[in-house]
Amino acid sequence: MLEPVKDLDAAHPVASAWRPVLADVVRAFVRDDFELAAGVPTVAAPTRALAARLRAGVAAYGETLTELTEETWETSVAQWAGRRWEVLVDLRTVEAGWSDLVLHVDVEEAAGGHRFKIHLIYVP
Hints:
Elements: E1 12-13, H1 19-30, E2 43-44, H2 48-61, E3 65-66, H3 72-75, E4 77-80, E5 85-93, E6 97-110, E7 113-122
Parallel strand pairs: 2-7
Antiparallel strand pairs: 1-4, 3-5, 4-5, 5-6, 6-7
């Protein structure tokens, strides 16, 4: 079980407890639910504008997102930024398997756990 690491100087593997939440977010995106209308507990639903940017970013990439696999966690990382973790999840596509796309999410400590905020899907 990997715990979140508070290290300002280096990135670390994504905490085990966060992985199912992030997989649920990507699963929603695969279904074209960038607004997270069905809801994902502990994840702030994107605004309409952000959902549109997420959808447009994936469309511009030109490939179809697919769900995460266990291999995702071998390369995805989280780094403590002082008040939150910045998490980069490597995304996969139907056409190519691994893609250059990442999902950028912030994770903050909250009462009883963690709270997730989606930032963007992009090619770093």
